[in-house]
Design a protein that fits this description.
- This protein is an alpha+beta fold.
- It folds into 4 domains: 75 residues, no CATH class; 87 residues, 2-Layer Sandwich (Phosphorylase Kinase, domain 1); 171 residues, Transferase(Phosphotransferase) domain 1 (Transferase(Phosphotransferase), domain 1), CATH 1.10.510; 119 residues, Serine Threonine Protein Phosphatase 5, Tetratricopeptide repeat.
- It is 35% helix and 10% strand.
- It contains 15 helices and 11 strands.
- Helix 4 runs antiparallel to helix 6, helix 9 runs parallel beside helix 11 and helix 11 runs antiparallel to helix 12.
- The longest helix is centred in the N-terminal third of the chain and has 19 residues.
- It is globular.
């Protein structure tokens, strides 16, 4: 039985809430002043004699109304009902309600201690049995743990979680944007511009490749338009990891996903990385054609050119390949799908399709979309993550000379009008090797003035600032570098060093662990495992 005042689950025949003292039986006052008063059945005197003085007997009253247990269990404060101004955990102030879904509600909130905007996810607070509630809490905790370990520019970070008044809350990055589903509805449920959709698909493929190369692999399992948020400059964020789980081969589970987007094997409770590729291509088919796969017969995708004549044959071929009912007939990996989509996008950017270029979503005049920025493929994970330990506060020796990522093309653009960032970077490397960190800092700042997203410059500047003792600025630049290029082992290595010098052993270990998974050669000179080497190195 759920308390209508605080949401606590009591035993079935409880008269008062054991958490707040609220009355759970109509007509009974609260136990100890807690909660709000329940409505009391009014006393009605039956046929009082008009001229006779009041009698000493108690007036007759209507018999108490029996409460239907099923109806009573429905009395609860629904998810999504937090009012504006509510403060959770003494630090998160609710600004507005965003949405309510199957597993909970999302709010926009302000983190009062730093005056920053965050997203608050509230777990659904009504369940028929205690087992259902335990299962939902377990799922929520799994989501928090899973997301807290992920670092990718297209995945929101989880920063906190807590339980308050018997409800579970998750704090994460607030994503400012519009879902692909909403964008299509705004366009009249028609197909969206091809360049935009393919650009989104390339970013999502990169997310899936990152998830699938974790150890063990993570299967997203619920790709659909409503879980794709489009932010400024067509930047994609993949949200709602509530049903993502670690992949265990030959271990059937229950069917979790969305009808129409899920592949045939997922209906049988079996998932694998290629299941996500099917769901992504089903989503792309929907966004391009406007044909909703949740309506009608599942697994029935016609060529997109039968809906739109401007769809290139190459794009149709790529999408339909991973929409095959047999997993072995689909793309082998998300990286393979991404490369095929990049080829299509380059063709579209050149105007190599019937009818020339199309207008990006929301644009009033034709324009050619920017070319796809090349990304360094994320290396497959070969070493399972080690368990987190909490060593004493470290005493860290001076950082070793910088190690540069070999063969990694710089992210971003070069400017021909205001200098050559690469020359500034090479000059900075020379100064670093001579331990002239002030001049190295000046050169790197010149490079970033031309291109603020030059990841190599950001990484080196983070290292230089660390050597100059400016640890907060160092962490700031290194965090930006690894968010732009999460596959950079060097970036994570230096970020770990910066955290270690600040005395933050937990974050230091986390970054060292990521660096070791991305490039095991960083620790190959030691016989012990890289985590043991990490702990020893920051404690020596």
């Amino acid at each position: 039985m759920f308390c209508p005042d605080c949401g606590y689950q009591n035993r079935p025949n409880a008269r008062f809430c054991t958490s707040c003292g609220f009355s759970l039986v109509k007509g009974t006052p609260p136990a100890s002043g807690g909660g709000s008063p329940s409505p009391v059945v009014p006393k009605i005197v039956l046929n009082p004699p008009p001229a006779v003085p009041p009698v000493q007997e108690k007036p007759r009253v209507n018999p108490p109304v029996a409460v239907n247990p099923v109806q009573e269990s429905q009395v609860f404060i629904p998810t999504g009902s937090l009012v504006v101004g509510t403060v959770l955990d003494n630090r998160y102030e609710i600004i507005s309600h965003i949405a309510t879904g199957g597993m909970g509600a999302i709010y926009k909130a302000r983190f009062t201690r730093l005056n920053t905007i965050v997203a608050v996810k509230e777990m659904l607070d009504f369940f028929q049995t205690g087992e259902e509630r335990d299962y939902a809490i377990k799922r929520f905790q799994e989501e928090a743990l899973l997301l807290s370990q992920l670092r990718h520019p297209n995945i929101p970070r989880v920063t906190d979680n807590f339980i308050e008044r018997n409800r579970y809350y998750l704090i994460m990055d607030f994503v400012e944007g519009k879902s692909a589903e909403k964008m299509q509805k705004d366009a009249g449920c028609k197909g969206l511009p091809l360049e935009n959709v393919v650009n989104w698909a390339i970013q999502i493929s990169d997310v899936l490749y990152y998830l699938h190369t974790q150890n063990p692999p993570i299967i997203y399992r619920d790709m659909k338009p409503s879980n794709i948020m489009i932010c400024e400059r067509d930047h994609v964020m993949v949200v709602d990891f509530g049903i993502a789980r670690h992949f265990s081969p030959r271990r059937p589970g229950t069917m979790i996903g969305t009808h129409g987007y899920a592949p045939p094997e997922q209906y049988k409770g079996n998932t694998e990385p290629k299941s996500d590729l099917y769901a992504l291509c089903a989503t792309l088919h929907h966004l391009i054609t406007g044909n909703d796969p949740t309506q009608g017969v599942p697994f029935n995708f016609k060529p997109m050119r039968s809906y739109r004549q401007d769809v290139p044959a190459k794009l149709d071929e790529v999408i339909l390949r991973s929409l095959h009912n047999l997993p072995e007939k689909r793309h082998n990996t998300a990286l393979e799908l991404k490369r095929d989509l990049e080829e299509v996008y380059e063709e579209l950017a050149r105007g190599g399709k019937p009818g020339g270029t199309t207008q990006p979503y929301g644009s009033s005049s034709p324009q050619t979309p920017p070319p796809v920025s090349p990304r360094t493929p994320i290396q497959p994970v070969s070493t399972p993550p080690a368990r987190s330990v909490n060593p004493p506060p470290p005493v860290v020796p001076p950082p070793s000379p910088p190690v540069y990522d070999r063969g990694t093309p710089p992210r971003g653009r070069k400017s021909s009008s205001s200098g050559d960032p690469q020359k500034n970077i090479e000059s900075a490397k020379g100064y670093i090797e001579k331990s002239n960190f002030k001049k190295a800092k000046n050169e790197l700042e010149k490079a970033l003035a031309v291109n603020p997203e030059q990841t190599e410059a950001l990484t080196l500047l983070g290292y230089v600032l660390m050597r100059l003792g400016k640890l907060q600025d160092s962490v700031k630049h290194l965090n930006k570098a690894v968010s732009l290029q999460p596959s950079s082992a060097t970036g994570h290595l230096y970020l770990g060093k910066a955290y270690a010098r600040m005395g933050n052993a937990t974050e230091a270990q986390k970054e060292y662990r990521i660096a070791g998974r991305l490039d095991p050669n960083l620790f190959k000179d030691k016989k012990e495992g890289f985590l043991e080497k990490l702990i020893r190195s920051i404690l020596d």
